[in-house]
């Protein structure tokens, strides 16, 4: 399966071999190029998904008002769905579904797993490339094809999928647009991509570790990717099966998820019936919940690398981290139905799943605690990557802790499907995972390009993002607790039609203070601010490629792990000679050592006393 | 630096890269088919009493197909063993049998599909049901070939209930008038009497839906596996001359996939044909 053969071509011969532009940048099998391809593509998708939400935020704050600047363009593209530049409910639903889909499946997961994993993992374990370079290329191509199919669905009559990123049937199957069919076919490609990627990552980590790179000497980032690989490998296929079945429902007229006696527009649907809508939800969340940990584990890996590097301390409790991430990986497969408390699946099942949900918070808390304790007593370098990481810790903490009430069936009855849920998981993913991804970009950028990104603009990006992102999501907790539902295309304005004498709004749950709906305006303005705050990053990212400060050594952050012990940027084949790991990944400030860090590939000086950071495994 | 362990085993894992890869891939495949089998269980358990059809498929044909696939599983491992013993000619023979078995399996499967797509259920305006294979149809009438296992009084295995849930007996009545005690009859149904006419495709009921989805996905795996094996038997076998070890590994890896495809069928056969 490899393009390399057993014939002995030297590394030098490889360096002189010029494969041309297409093979170098488009159809490359080099893990570093593929990693960068993934990074650029998924960042573009992330900004596009964010842009959809910006348009939606206008509609939520000022329902029925024409969207400024973009309204006219929108009308040209989607026609009647944005008549007069006003976002219709159909368009809102479609953007909402695609925002979730794009952010998760085309944005954050490819960025966290495929982009960073591809670039960093082989370097960190001392491998020349991934185990299957051509499968790696196929994985990226499949991802792009899936992404293109999903993008095309915006332009078909009726528009893109409208049933939310969860695509619950029967709703998803009966909305009169082929967008859902595009969604399903696109997802099959994306899932195939993730399957190929995860097989490749796991095989690489199992097989290609350099001599001396024992399991317990692997940087935690590699461990995080390893567990993530298993999650993707085993959790995605059930969604693929579900997507195939929903596709059959759409195109072959089957009734996998369509119950007997389904009425569509007061007409009995011409189907055989006998299907189960709950079956979809089970299969979907069997992926959906491990997916949450697919989003967060690589981010934790990045956080660990940057914390150790910038506190100049070994990680406190390396083994706790490793075993906790394994525990999370295992437990994440048995918590899925906590998304389904309100489906009427029964209290016994709810009790089981709320128990496992409470248990899975233990390893998550252990991981966060390990990071906090590592900060203790460190002489912290407050560079841009470290700032993002330091923000990650409390932000992820807020996201995690606000999840506990959702995990308890009783509290979830009230909070389910409200803005509280939105605030909760966005705290995990946006100022949590995405901040860690930004940190990773700032941290590994010098290795990939040989230049630093601007520290000043990095800090501008950080502080403005941190400010606005909290302003976006904090008020949503209050909105959700007041009972505001999350999928209303008018931001709850119709509740305003029933204002009682005291000025409070009547609601099925109770009286709302007017501030609940007025916060929509605050949130939307903050969201626009957050969008502006990304401009320094985008400019910085491209300008620094040619104008950034040059690195003065191959190891500008004085790091211990192997990816910094290569030429900058690493050539094809990565290392100049066979790297050998002599020690654990985080030997910073080792007492008695010459410098304040000892790279993993530095042999022991003969007779020098040294306390091993991690025992052999 | 070259990628290590592409041909030879890594000492601590005892595996070469591709073997790790295929086992991981198969783990993923287990989850894919596992999800579909779970769907089968949930749909069957959730079906209203009596609504789940049984005995729709021809067990002898399924048995033959099972034997065909098991045979191919034996030959695929014999092919690998032949290479290990440096007998390239035998390898070619065994792998040819494997590919032929795969083609035979697909042929038999297509016949079974054809049989289902030409099998119609007609609900007439008076609520009665005619169930049988299509003989001919034109704008005025539809001719179905109704088969009976026993006399008109016995309930036919293929006819369970009509749309309203009552046992159907119309076909028997129709046929009884044509040939008392006959086992095979042609029934002519005028178009004007037909309320609904549907063949036994995946849209007919959830059992057929999961049947076609599972066997269809399995058939795609058979075709894919057979294509790889055929490639390694044909143009891909040139590698035997240059890199025999690597070629043998490829045969082993494709064989592992083939065994998995067979194993899926070993589960599919009882679940869909016998239960």
Keywords:
A: 617 residues, mainly alpha, two-stranded antiparallel sheet, disordered N terminus, disordered C terminus, B: alpha+beta, Four Helix Bundle (Hemerythrin (Met), subunit A), 2 domains, 7 helices, elongated
Can you offer a commentary on this structure?
- The complex is a heterodimer of chains A (617) and B (275).
- Chain A contains 19 helices and 2 strands.
- With 617 residues, chain A is mainly α.
- In chain A, helix 3 (31-61) runs parallel beside helix 6 and helix 8 packs antiparallel against helix 9.
- Chain A is globular.
- Mean pLDDT of chain A is 91; it is low at 1-15 and 611-617.
- Chain B is an alpha+beta fold.
- Chain B folds into 2 domains: 36-116 and 204-274, Cytochrome c oxidase, subunit III, four-helix bundle (Four Helix Bundle (Hemerythrin (Met), subunit A)); 118-199, no CATH class.
- Chain B is built from 7 helices and 5 strands; from the N terminus they run H-H-H-E-E-E-H-E-E-H-H-H.
- Chain B has helices spanning 17-46, 59-84, 88-117, 170-178, 206-233, 239-242, 244-274; strands at 119-124, 129-137, 141-147, 184-190, 194-199.
- Chain B has a 5-stranded antiparallel beta sheet with strand order 4-3-2-1-5.
- In chain B, a hairpin with a 3-residue loop joins strand 2 (129-137) and strand 3.
- Chain B is elongated, with a radius of gyration of 24 Å.
- The interface between A and B is large, with 55 and 47 residues.
């Amino acid at each position: 399966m490899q393009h390399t053969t057993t014939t002995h071509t030297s590394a030098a011969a490889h360096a002189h071999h010029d494969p041309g532009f297409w093979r170098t940048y488009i159809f490359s099998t080099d893990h570093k190029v593929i990693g960068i391809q993934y990074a650029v593509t998924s960042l573009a998708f992330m900004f596009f998904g964010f842009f959809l939400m910006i348009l939606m935020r206008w509609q939520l704050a000022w329902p029925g008002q024409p969207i400024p600047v973009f309204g006219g363009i929108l009308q040209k593209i989607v026609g009647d769905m944005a008549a007069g530049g006003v976002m219709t409910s159909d368009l809102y639903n479609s953007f909402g579904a695609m925002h979730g889909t794009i952010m998760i499946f085309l944005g954050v997961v490819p960025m966290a797993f495929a982009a960073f994993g591809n670039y960093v993992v082989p370097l960190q374990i001392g491998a020349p490339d991934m185990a299957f370079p051509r499968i790696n290329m196929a994985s990226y191509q499949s991802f792009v094809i899936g992404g293109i199919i999903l993008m095309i669905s915006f332009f078909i009559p009726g528009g893109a999928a409208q049933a939310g990123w969860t695509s619950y049937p029967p709703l998803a199957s009966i909305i009169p647009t082929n967008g859902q069919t595009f969604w399903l076919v696109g997802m099959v490609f994306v899932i195939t991509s993730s399957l190929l990627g995860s097989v490749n990552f796991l095989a690489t980590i199992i097989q290609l570790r350099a001599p001396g790179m024992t399991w317990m000497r692997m940087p935690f980032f590699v461990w995080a990717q390893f567990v993530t690989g298993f999650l993707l490998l085993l959790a995605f296929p059930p969604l693929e099966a579900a997507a195939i079945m929903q596709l059959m429902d759409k195109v072959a007229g089957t009734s996998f998820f369509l119950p007997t006696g389904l009425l569509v527009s007061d007409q009995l649907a011409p189907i055989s019936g006998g299907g189960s809508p709950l079956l979809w939800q089970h299969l979907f969340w069997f992926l959906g919940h491990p997916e949450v940990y697919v989003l967060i584990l690589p981010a934790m890996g990045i956080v660990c690398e940057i914390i150790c590097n910038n506190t100049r301390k070994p990680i406190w409790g390396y083994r706790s981290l490793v075993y906790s991430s394994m525990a999370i990986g295992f437990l994440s497969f048995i918590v899925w139905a906590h998304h389904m408390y309100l489906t009427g699946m029964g209290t016994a099942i709810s009790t089981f799943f709320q128990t496992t949900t409470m248990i899975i918070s233990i390893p998550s808390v252990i991981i966060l605690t390990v990071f906090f304790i590592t900060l203790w007593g460190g002489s912290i370098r407050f560079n841009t990557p470290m700032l993002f990481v330091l923000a990650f810790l409390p932000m992820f903490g807020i996201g995690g802790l606000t999840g506990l009430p959702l995990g308890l069936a009783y509290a979830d009855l009230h909070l389910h499907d409200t803005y509280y849920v939105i605030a909760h998981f966005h705290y995990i993913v946006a100022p949590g995972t995405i901040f860690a991804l930004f940190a990773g970009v700032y941290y590994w950028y010098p290795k990939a390009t040989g230049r630093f990104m601007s520290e000043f603009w990095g800090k501008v990006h950080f502080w403005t993002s941190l400010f606005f992102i909290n302003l976006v999501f904090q008020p949503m907790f209050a909105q959700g607790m007041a009972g505001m539902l999350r999928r209303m295309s008018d931001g709850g304005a119709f509740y305003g039609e029933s204002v009682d004498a005291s000025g409070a709004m009547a609601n099925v749950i109770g009286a709302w203070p007017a501030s609940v709906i007025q916060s929509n305006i605050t949130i939307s303005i903050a969201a626009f601010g957050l969008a502006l705050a990304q401009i320094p990053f985008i400019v910085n990212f491209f300008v620094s490629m040619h104008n950034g400060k040059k690195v003065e050594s191959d190891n500008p952050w004085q790091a211990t792990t192997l990816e910094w012990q290569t030429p900058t940027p690493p050539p094809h084949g990565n290392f100049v000679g066979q790297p050998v790991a002599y020690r654990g990944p985080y030997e910073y400030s080792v007492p008695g050592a010459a410098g304040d860090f000892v790279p993993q590939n530095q042999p022991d000086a003969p007779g020098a006393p040294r306390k091993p950071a991690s025992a052999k495994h | 630096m070259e990628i290590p362990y592409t041909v030879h085993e890594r000492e601590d894992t005892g595996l070469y890269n591709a073997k790790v890869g295929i086992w991981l891939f198969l783990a993923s495949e287990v989850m894919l088919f596992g999800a579909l089998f779970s769907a089968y269980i949930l749909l069957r358990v959730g079906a209203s009493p009596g609504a789940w059809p049984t005995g729709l498929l021809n067990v002898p044909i399924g048995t033959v197909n099972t034997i065909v696939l098991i045979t191919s599983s034996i030959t695929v491992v014999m092919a690998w063993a032949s290479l290990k013993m440096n007998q390239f000619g035998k390898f070619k023979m065994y792998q040819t049998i494997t590919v032929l078995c795969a083609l035979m399996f697909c042929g038999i499967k297509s016949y079974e599909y054809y049989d289902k797509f030409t099998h119609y259920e007609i609900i007439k305006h008076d609520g009665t049901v005619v169930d049988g294979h299509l003989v001919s149809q034109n704008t005025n009438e539809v001719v179905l070939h109704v088969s009976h296992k026993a006399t008109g009084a016995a309930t036919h295995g293929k006819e369970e209930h009509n749309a309203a849930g009552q046992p159907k007996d119309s076909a028997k009545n129709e046929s009884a008038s044509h040939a008392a005690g006959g086992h095979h009859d042609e029934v002519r149904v005028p178009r004007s009497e037909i309320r609904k006419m549907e063949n036994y495709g995946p849209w007919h009921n959830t059992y057929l839906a999961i049947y076609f989805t599972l066997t269809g996905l399995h058939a795609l795996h058979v075709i894919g596996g057979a294509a790889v094996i055929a490639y390694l038997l044909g143009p891909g076998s040139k590698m035997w001359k240059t890199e025999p070890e690597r070629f043998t590994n490829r045969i082993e890896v494709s064989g592992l996939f083939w065994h998995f495809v067979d194993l899926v069928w070993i589960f599919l056969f009882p679940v869909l044909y016998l239960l």
